[in-house]
Design brief:
The complex is a heterodimer of chains A (about 190) and B (about 450). Chain A has about 190 residues and is mainly alpha-helical. Chain A has two domains: about 5-35, no CATH class; about 60-160, Cytochrome Bc1 Complex, Chain D, domain 2 (Orthogonal Bundle). In chain A, about 35% of the residues lie in helices and about 5% in strands. Chain A has seven helices and four strands; from the N terminus they run αβαβααααβαβ. Chain A has helices at about 5-15, 35-45, 60-70, 75, 110-120, 130-145, 155-160, and strands at about 35, 60, 155, 170. In chain A, strands 2-3 form a two-stranded antiparallel ribbon. In chain A, helix 3 (about 60-70) packs across helix 6 and helix 5 packs across helix 6 (about 130-145). Chain B is mostly beta strands and about 450 residues long. Among the domains of chain B are: about 130-315, Sulfite Oxidase, Chain A, domain 2 (Alpha-Beta Complex); about 325-445, Immunoglobulin-like (Sandwich). In chain B, about 10% of the residues lie in helices and about 25% in strands. Chain B is built from six helices and 24 strands. Chain B has helices at about 10-20, 165-170, 195-200, 215-220, 245-250, 415-420; strands at about 100, 110-115, 135, 150-155, 160, 170-180, 205-210, 230-235, 240-245, 255-260, 260, 270-275, 285-295, 310, 315, 325-330, 340-350, 355-360, 370, 375, 385-390, 395-405, 435, 445. In chain B, the strands form six sheets. In chain B, strands 5-4-13-8-9 form a five-stranded mixed β-sheet. The chains are: A mainly alpha (about 190), B mainly beta (about 450). Chains A and B meet through strand 1, helix 2, helix 5 and strand 4 of A and strand 4, strand 5, helix 2, helix 4 and strand 13 of B.
């Protein structure tokens, strides 16, 4: 067990090591249980821009069209035009205009995010109900409707990382703020 | 005393059974009522904001019952409610209009937001039932005994923790504000919100209790090169955000309690992440998984949403800090000043970058400013209450507040903000707010 003295030594060590795994074993509380590979696999659902986490399976535009019509169109419109929920198609070339239209095709930087988000959160009223093949198919159909893949496209683990989205380079990092420079004027300002 | 005195014993008996069955403590009553009285007796903000309706309502001129001096009030002539009715206390029925109110901008109330009634609150703490909400797939009903936090990825010892495991670690409690990065998003082009609740109410402040995330990351051991983590919720959106490891090791908390009690379901029960000063979306609720990696994960929430579109068509991404901001909460939109003379201007200031250093207030639309008093304690990344006296002479006025934090950053004017960011960036609006006071005392939202 931990006496206050032990704990103070621990926190000092923690600060010194900056939590890096440097080979010097810090004391631990030993709370929690080891996570098994099987447990991790069940919960590790994110799919990343480099394709990490993309599951086995594949989908096609044709299959995606049918799934979309049955499970997506009622919220996003039969052509992805939106209403009542988000518009998914079109808008390319509008981002600098007076009326920017942000869609999968015009705005989203990574195809991986399309797969990831559909799998984790869609359909809105039945999340988690699509198979991986179905998610690949709906993703393929959305990319097709946005002119990013052709109608014979097949989508799988390898493909998803290779697609370059139209707005891939449309994002600014790092955060440039603070970007305003107000001053403490007190009298007769403006 | 009056003649009722002699009947008091009988009245007590008669009332006792009735009191035990009364439910009016919890019954919402849409009643008009008086609000705040200053020492001078002036009514500052005699308004009741009704759900959906926003017109100022005059303070009740006189009671219809004879409870005022020299009469004995009726509530002195009968016993009150017994204890534990109800066991978990609720506000007076006369406060029934102090509630969260929903946005009208979303097509569903499952993915939507509700606003904290800032115009009705005092001090800096937001009561748990009034903390603003933002859910992306509703509020899950989580059995804490079946909730787990998994930490894996670039760690030496991937682990699964129960909520009880996390409560065994040395705990910390801190007051921090939480602000949705979409707060005030309706105000970029025109003044739209009628009240400070609708313009600034995606803002709350609680005492948060939990275990520092750094303590738990120490427990699993970070591998060399670990620089980002993914935090994921157990809601039906499995909402996920990337967090820089520097923030995780700085002041991030795995929170299980707010304002002294367990997290409310809508605030992430039984476990949430809390990233002080960062946009609220990142303080992932119902936290179930942390994956440690070496780059941002680029989730839906940090690419398609919560990115700031600039006039040139490029968008800022991974913009986390909620910069310094302030707003006058009294008087504010929907209020009406009834009396000339002394009024105390009251408001809130906060900064995700640190402590509030000062707040200045203008009553002439930003031409001349006076320094307001800050109510202590002034805590970092926490709401700070400011106050300043004002003599209203019954003439038109435009009230503004302007804050500076301890980094020297000064809250911008709307003009300055729009000059840099245009009007399409949606998030991170922190411009100076203007409230117009008409000669008749009506207070409205304006751009000035």
């Amino acid at each position: 067990m931990y006496t206050p003295k032990t704990f103070m030594a621990l926190t000092g060590l923690v600060a010194a090591l900056a939590f890096a795994s440097t080979g010097i074993a810090a004391e631990r509380f030993d709370f929690g249980k080891p996570a098994t590979q099987k447990q991790i696999a069940g919960w590790n659902i994110d799919v990343d821009p480099d394709g990490t986490g993309a599951p086995a399976g594949h989908g096609t535009v044709t299959q995606g069209k049918e799934i979309y019509a049955n499970k997506c169109a009622s919220c996003h419109g039969d052509k992805g035009q939106g209403k009542p929920m988000d518009r998914l198609v079109g808008g390319q070339g509008t981002l600098a205009s007076a009326k920017p239209v942000k869609t999968v095709g015009s705005y989203w930087p990574y195809a991986s995010t399309v797969f990831d988000y559909i799998r984790r959160a869609m359909p809105f009223n039945a999340p988690g109900s699509l198979s991986n093949d179905e998610v690949y198919s709906v993703t393929a159909y959305l990319l097709y409707m946005n002119g990013i893949v052709d109608k014979n496209a097949k989508l799988d683990k390898e493909q998803i990382a290779q697609i370059k989205m139209p707005n891939r380079d449309g994002f600014i990092r790092p955060d440039p703020r603070p970007d305003t420079h107000n001053i403490l004027c007190m009298q007769n300002c403006k | 005393m009056n003649s009722k005195k002699s009947n008091r014993g009988d009245e007590v008996k008669n009332r006792l059974s009735a009191d035990l069955t009364q439910t009016d403590i919890a019954t919402p009553v849409r009643s008009m009522h008086r609000r705040q009285f200053l020492k001078t007796g002036a009514v500052v903000a005699g308004t009741a904001l009704m759900a959906g309706g926003l017109g100022p309502i005059a303070a009740r001129a006189a009671s219809t019952k004879n409870n005022l001096p020299p009469n004995t009030p009726e509530w002195m002539l009968k016993q009150g409610h017994p204890i534990v009715t109800p066991p978990y206390g609720v506000p007076s029925k006369y406060e029934s209009d102090v509630i969260r109110r929903p946005t009208d901008l979303t097509p569903t109330d499952i993915s939507s937001w509700s606003f904290t009634p800032l115009q009705d609150l005092h001090g800096i703490v937001t009561p748990n039932g009034l903390v603003y909400e933002r859910h992306h797939a509703g509020v899950p009903a989580i059995d804490p005994a079946e909730h787990r936090l998994m930490i894996h990825g670039m760690v030496d010892n991937p682990k699964i923790f129960t909520v009880e495991d996390l409560k065994r670690f040395p705990a910390v409690s801190h007051f921090y504000f939480l602000e949705c990065s979409g707060n005030t998003l309706t105000e970029w082009v025109k003044p739209k919100g009628k009240t400070v609740q609708s313009t600034h109410g995606l803002l709350s402040c609680c005492e948060w209790t939990g275990v520092p995330l750094s303590t738990v990351l120490q427990e699993v051991g970070l591998k060399h090169g670990a620089s980002w983590l993914l935090a994921e919720g157990a809601d039906a959106a499995a909402l996920d955000r990337s967090v820089p490891i520097s923030k995780a090791l700085d002041d991030a908390i795995l929170v299980y309690a707010q304002n002294g009690e367990a997290l409310r379901p809508e605030q992430g029960y039984p476990l949430r992440l809390l990233l002080p000063g960062f946009e609220g979306n990142m303080s992932v609720k119902w936290l179930r998984r942390i994956e440690v990696g070496d780059k941002p994960f680029m989730s839906h929430e940090e690419t398609a949403k919560y990115t700031d579109l600039m006039p040139d068509g490029k968008a800022r991404i991974l913009t986390f800090v909620m910069e310094a901001k302030s707003v006058i909460t009294s008087p504010s939109g929907g209020h009406r000043l009834h009396d000339k003379g002394f009024h105390e201007i009251r408001g809130l200031a906060w900064s995700g970058s640190g402590r509030i250093s000062r707040v200045d207030v203008s009553v002439d639309g930003g031409r001349n400013w006076r320094r307001a008093e800050l109510q202590g304690p002034v805590l970092p990344k926490c709401l700070t209450r400011f106050r300043i006296p004002w003599e209203w002479r019954g003439k038109e006025a435009i009230l503004q507040s302007r804050t500076m934090d301890d980094t020297g950053y000064v809250q911008p004017t709307l003009k300055q903000l729009v000059a840099v960011r245009g009007t399409h960036s949606v998030y991170h609006y922190n411009a100076i707010q203007s409230w117009h006071v008409a000669a008749d005392g009506e207070v409205t939202n304006v751009h000035a």
